[in-house]
Amino acid sequence: MGTVNIPRLDLNDFVKGSDTLRKQFSDAIGKAFNETGFVTITNHGLDKNLIGKLYADVKMLFALPDSIKAKYEIAGLAGQRGYTGKQKETAKGFTAPDLKEFWQIGQTVTDDDAMKSEYPENIRVDEVPDFNDTTLKVYKKLEWAGIYLLRAISVYLGLPENYFDKQVHNGNSILRTLHYFPITDPDRLPADAVRAGAHEDINLITLLIGASADGLELLTRENKWFPVKAHGEDIVVNVGDMLQRLTNNKLKSTTHRVVNPPGELMKFSRFSVPFFLHPKAGMDLSCLPSCIDASHPKQYDDITAGAYLDERLREIGLKK
Ligand SMILES: O=C(O)CCC(=O)C(=O)O
Ligand SMILES: [Fe+2]
């Protein structure tokens, strides 16, 4: 197993630290995103109680009978709001769908931004009323943390610190609550059926709550799988394909997966909550001129975030 250094960084260093601490934070996140695409973050703004409440509500939601959950799976939304049932998403290149079910929450525009009319309404769960409020709180906190992380990355890239702010404010981010359900007869699974097949995230960056549970692995440059572990309440942050594309591969969107636990452990659920930070659909993802030179020729065609998302949702079977 190759070893990988996933640095643990304190977001407070960047949010309220001295110039020296802020610079150290930017350098460290930039270096990690250039090398392995992953960091873990402490002091991210979500307290233990909120995370505890989130998991309690998420567990209640997925404990509902499939027949109730099915009424929240709404055609035409490509899984971007509400429920997506078991084995509906298939990682690119896999034949068996992932062993998971999930619920997605999108942007809530609270000012008079015209973006309001662009987004479908979130779907409210009647049976677990707290779920709606808890996930909105978590969404806003992770969006806040994400904006600071992107500011630190902007500094690393030599861009104005607020380069991403306007694109992320009222952007198309998604909070996904995930349940990897128990499998009672693991021997009968199709050979390539896993909790989450090897993939790269589509968005700018992902902030993941719950990576303290075993299973998440990243693919090293030596093509070896390496387990990602986070301390207690820390969140894991990784680069997605949109940021990789914008930076012409300077920042790496690292392949990752969630493996099945051995034998009997497959009978237990696993829960996790990634927040996929997306910009507004109109954001130009053309490679930054500062990331192109003779030894780094331009790798990607120009595209907007919206067009790119559409292409990727079709690939994974969520959009028809
Ligand atoms: O469940 C996890 O730990 C990771 C999930 C993930 O990679 C994803 O949903 O994109
Ligand atoms: Fe992922």
What's the order of the H and E elements? EHHEHHEEHHEEEEEEHEEH
The portion of residues forming beta strands comes to: 15-25%
Number of helices: 8
**In order across it, which strands form the biggest sheet?**
1-2-10-7-12-5-4-3
**Helix coverage percent of residues?**
25-40%
CATH class: Mainly Beta
Tell me the overall shape.
globular
Main sheet, how many strands, which sense, barrel? 8 strands, mixed
Determine the CATH superfamily: B-lactam Antibiotic, Isopenicillin N Synthase, Chain
Question: Which architecture per CATH?
Answer: Sandwich
Please provide the count of β strands.
12
Our count of domains comes out at 1
| Radius of gyration (Å) | 19 Å
Bound ions, cofactors and other small molecules, one mention each: 2-oxoglutaric acid, fe (ii) ion
Distance between the termini: 39 Å
Taking pLDDT < 50 over at least 5 consecutive residues as the criterion, the unreliable ranges are: none
Under CATH, the topology is which?
Answer: Jelly Rolls
